[in-house]
Specification:
The chain is an alpha/beta fold and 131 residues long. The chain is built from six helices and four strands. Helix 1 crosses helix 2.
Length: 131
Amino acid sequence: TIMQHIQRGVEVAAADPSALLVFSGGEARVNAGPRSEAQSYWTVADAKNKVHQFSMRKWFGHDIKLRATTEEFALDSFQNLMFRITVVGFEFKRERFVNLHRVALRFSEERFTYEGIDPPDIGNAMAGEVN
């Protein structure tokens, strides 16, 4: 599912030449060590592009790599939202982003979109939410 999130983020950025692609997420998992979720997404995107394991032609073809960055301090979905208006994340988090965080930050519905993609094994992802 991470690869689908990355791919969709690249597609959204490719469709808008003025967009900035931000991989957002801090060091939220103790087991990951001193690696942020944002760094993980960036590393996977770059590695997958280099070995052509999925369709990342747009990663280089539309200068998206030059318009991509990381935000490495957000520790939860509310803080993630502070750094972007188009969010690509888990579908099961849509309600929280759209109706809680977006409203709390006073983003208008017209300026906010949520692209939801759930993993095949949603039970494990949702269990991680509890922690």
